[in-house]
């Protein structure tokens, strides 16, 4: 579904996370050039991918880390 058929404003989070297909990515970038609302929202969301990576790494580390005597992950 193209950004114009669902509203480009809905693609900000998907764009920030890098999950748009190539056509939607390009269409959103064209929209972004002239939409201050989406530019502002993208700035607000700019840290989300890094935060999600940090949570994922933290969870994977805690699941594979040393075990307590009762054999549960710390």
UniProtKB/TrEMBL annotation:
InterPro entries from the xrefs?
Answer: Anti_sigma_zinc_sf, Znf_put
**Region ranges (Disordered):** 54-74
**TM helices/strands, residue ranges:** none
Q: Which domain of life is it from?
A: Bacteria
Keyword Lyase in annotation: no
Q: Which UniProt keywords apply?
A: Transcription, Transcription regulation
Task: Tell me the ranges covered by the Putative zinc-finger domain, including all copies.
Answer: 8-39
Q: Which Pfam families match?
A: zf-HC2 (PF13490)
> What protein am I looking at?
Putative zinc-finger domain-containing protein
């Amino acid at each position: 579904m193209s950004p114009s058929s669902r509203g480009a404003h809905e693609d900000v989070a998907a764009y920030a996370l890098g999950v748009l297909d190539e056509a939607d990515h390009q269409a959103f970038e064209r929209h972004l050039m002239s939409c201050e609302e989406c530019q502002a929202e993208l700035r607000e969301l700019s840290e989300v991918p890094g935060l999600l990576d940090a949570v994922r790494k933290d969870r994977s580390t805690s699941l594979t880390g040393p075990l307590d005597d009762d054999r549960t992950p710390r």
